[in-house]
Amino acid sequence: MFFTMPQPRSWTDVFLSFTALTSLFTPVVMVKHENFKTCTQAGFCKRNRAFADDVAQLTSWTSPYNLDPSSVSFKDGQLSGTILKTVGKSGETVRLPLTVTFLESGTARVTVDEEKRQKGDITLRHDSKARKERYNEASKWAIVGGLEISTGAALSRDTEAGSTRVNYGPAGTHEAVITHSPFGINFKRDGETHIKFNERGLLNMEHWRAKVEKPQPKEGEEPPPETTEETGEDESTWWEETFGGNTDTKPKGPEAVALDISFPGYEHVYGIPEHASSLSLKETRGGDGKYSEPYRLYNADVFEYELDSPMTLYGAIPLMQAHRKGSTVGVFWLNAAETWIDIVKSKGSKNPLSLGTKSVTDTQTHWISESGILDVFVMLGPTPKDITQKYGELTGFTAMPQQFAIAYHQCRWNYVTDEDVMDVDRKFDKFKIPYDVIWLDIEYTDGKKYFTWDPLTFPNPKKMHNQLDKRDRKLVAIIDPHIKNTDKYPVIDEMKSKGLAVKNKEGNDYEGWCWPGSSYWVDCFNPAAIKWWTTLFKYDSWKGTFANTFIWNDMNEPSVFNGPETTMPKDNLHYGNWEHRDVHNINGLTFHNATFEAMVERKKGEVRRPFVLTRSFYAGSQRLGAMWTGDNLAEWSHLAISIPMVLNQGISGFPFAGADVGGFFGNPSKELLTRWYQTGTFYPFFRGHAHIDTRRREPYVPGAPYTEIISQALRLRYQLLPAWYTAFHEAATTGAPIVRPNFYVHPDDAAGFAIDDQLYVGSTGLLAKPVVTEGANSVDIYLADAEPYYDYFDYTTYTGAGYHTVQAPLDKIPLLMQGGHVIPRRDRPRRSSGLMKWDPFTLVVVLDRAGNAEGTLYIDDGETFEFEQGAAIHRKFVFDHETSALSSTDIGTQGPKTAAFAKAMAKVRVEKVVVVGAPAAWEGLAEVAVSEEGVKESKGGRRAKVTFYPAQGVKAAWAVVRDPKVAVGKGWRIQFA
């Protein structure tokens, strides 16, 4: 959110207030780059990039890192050793403990630490209270499983080659070749190298060294240059660094860690969100169409972010996957500090001596983090699904949300009174527009004090909640990590007295500036802070909240208005005396986690799945809720970029993602607003949101024909909620993205590897390409295979790999159905998803070239955790052309609550079956035979009516079976011929 300031309390506050307030009237422009560092302005990035440049210019280069062969040991799937770093001309040796762990999943983990820091054998400057070790607790927050060590990994040494080899993975098909001098690792699958560590010799761990105080120059003398004879390195930012008026004291001196990771034969790499950029990552060393800056991961509150940029945004997931035809591999760089990633590509040839051999592209990456240990997971695929699943096994799969959370959310900054909220709620009903959630931004509070209600504008929160509850709707209220520093506010008094705030470098409570003015930040790295935080959300503590109140966590990067780069100083201290520089990118996750825990424990005996939206995130945040792409603009370009941004979140393990529909800043045209709603229909997280200075734009505001077209888009989302919920279940159990790019669905289609403006919904075969261009009346949809694709609305058929033009007037969403799928939906319009609970289902059977189709449907109660005890229905539907029958079989996991849930759902039926691409032989067919498990049929069996509609021109034939009277939770069979 952009900010207005409260009443100032000092002349400094007056200046800050004036600066912020005047910016409210500044025209919408690009981000203020001067507020955020470039690589050149980040000392550790500049040093390591310069090092890479120097190495590239040398005709021969040998990395000074060597694995001591005598130190290598191997036991129970884990290799240990010591890397020796030789320092410049001095010849000093630095010992770096190495561990390579081979996991049962086929993933390998490489960690490198620094012995002196590990043992605490260093001296901190400035009498700092910071920890002496390199930060080694990122896994505590990010990793939840998948660490079972392989019992089948086997070691072999090659003394002559100077290497150690370990075979591991499924059937021993993976191999790690560890070169001793210089140190490097090649990771192979089926005998071919797919990932290389330190191929270019850019491994660099900036070891601890005491600062040598240089004599001060006499008057009139020039100061000596900031270099050392031993290394020739630039020391100007080793010991302190100033940016934006803030000086980072760096009590541990230089401690960056860097490594080059190469992907031989891979042209496309994806991941490392969050950036407003293309799905296939661009090169970063300059040139036509390339970036000149590395991709940056440093969670920040970026105002009016620019597009097509490697600039950092609100979240960081340091997962990269490389893809080519027949193979996908990935690396997960587990480091929570500021990180920069360079990407370069080079053309080569698999066999330069073979005439006619096509050249291949190698992708080389350079990872640079400011602090922490080197901790990298290597996943060898071979498919995109393998990467997302293995990564999910490590960091957790996305949380299974409540049903309402995947429906439509209505938000703005701000609904100004409780009467305003109730009026908006009534108008949605008046215009027959479905929605599930209405949101409150910061203005609902009493003077920006969280866990309070403004007594003048929200005097009756109970009445407001009760009205929403009548339609089974919810309310989401914002709670941020900054706590107002003011008198007579029990929350801040408790936080101070219990010592639960983030500390400054002196160890005192850190005070900064955010929405409330002077603020303190709760330190959610502290278990005591999490425990205290959970007490604030209980109904008797936060009065005026109820079972239909849920939470929005914003500003948790953390955003500090008067801090460097709008965040905390890096030498602040967190629980355990870790510096903020070590944990910055995890900070948002810890706050999100604390709120998740608080929502689980709101009331004893009332266990409901939390819904908590976060802006800042890290690897593992997917376990806790949803994210959105932050403060976008009401511009067509921002609508367009939202699709690759959401797709990238999905393949990077955090699929519950969306963008502010309509754009946060500015006033969209009615056409843009309409097209954005049509696009938002295909975001996993679907919320309309707007800035406080924008005009009202609820779906009923634009008027005819826009309101009706937007309503149609919303009804489509609600109609397809069964398909969406099933996709969420797949994500929650396998790590698969909820919306998927072409390369994920068609991993062997090289022509589609860079396509990022269309998407598939789960495993449903639904393919959407939203209109994101002003005035467009058609789109060109890319089809990757020879299966028939049918228009969702009129069954127009498109066949053949390549681009096909699909007409898309304003009232039309380009949406196709790939042959071979069964798509579940609910066709009865309701005011909210909760009112659909007992509605019957429609199954759309979309036949492929061979006349077959299959699909799944997952149902649970949509709110509790009882699905973990089997309270769910999970069915597989198969249409077999040979038998000409559609059948339903159980694929669910049984548990103690399976039977009870099945009984509760016994009367929920399939009311209609639609077969698209129906065979011409069905013309004249009047009835189908129906059989159902547990139902004794009368003589002659049960029959249901079927209507056949023949093909018309390019529109496929289709057939409809009406009310076959089969229960959705039972096994059954519908025989067509």
TrEMBL record:
UniProt keyword annotations, A-Z: Endoplasmic reticulum, Glycoprotein, Glycosidase, Hydrolase, Signal
Q: GO molecular function: any one?
A: alpha-1,4-glucosidase activity
Pathway named in the protein's UniProt entry: Glycan metabolism; N-glycan metabolism
Question: Locate the Glycoside hydrolase family 31 TIM barrel domain: which residues?
Answer: 398-727
Cross-referenced CDD domains: GH31_GANC_GANAB_alpha (cd06603), GH31_N (cd14752)
Which EC class, in a word? hydrolase
Signal peptide residues on this chain, from the entry's feature table: 1-30
* Boundaries of every Glycoside hydrolase family 31 N-terminal domain copy: 97-342
**Enzyme Commission number:** 3.2.1.20
Q: Which domain of life is it from?
A: Eukaryota
Region span, Disordered: 209-239
| Domain Glycosyl hydrolase family 31 C-terminal per the UniProt entry, residue ranges | 735-823
Record field: compositional bias (Basic and acidic residues)? 209-221
Q: Which GO terms describe its biological process?
A: carbohydrate metabolic process; N-glycan processing
Question: What chemistry does it catalyse, as a reaction equation?
Answer: Hydrolysis of terminal, non-reducing (1->4)-linked alpha-D-glucose residues with release of alpha-D-glucose
Entry GO CC:
glucosidase II complex
Localization: Endoplasmic reticulum
Q: Which InterPro entries match?
A: Gal_mutarotase_sf_dom (IPR011013), GH (IPR017853), Glyco_hydro_31_AS (IPR030458), Glyco_hydro_31_C (IPR048395), Glyco_hydro_31_N_dom (IPR025887), Glyco_hydro_31_TIM (IPR000322), Glyco_hydro_b (IPR013780)
What segments bear the compositional bias annotation Acidic residues? 222-238
Q: Which family does it belong to?
A: Belongs to the glycosyl hydrolase 31 family.
Q: Please identify the protein, giving its name as recorded.
A: alpha-glucosidase
Organism annotation: Lophium mytilinum
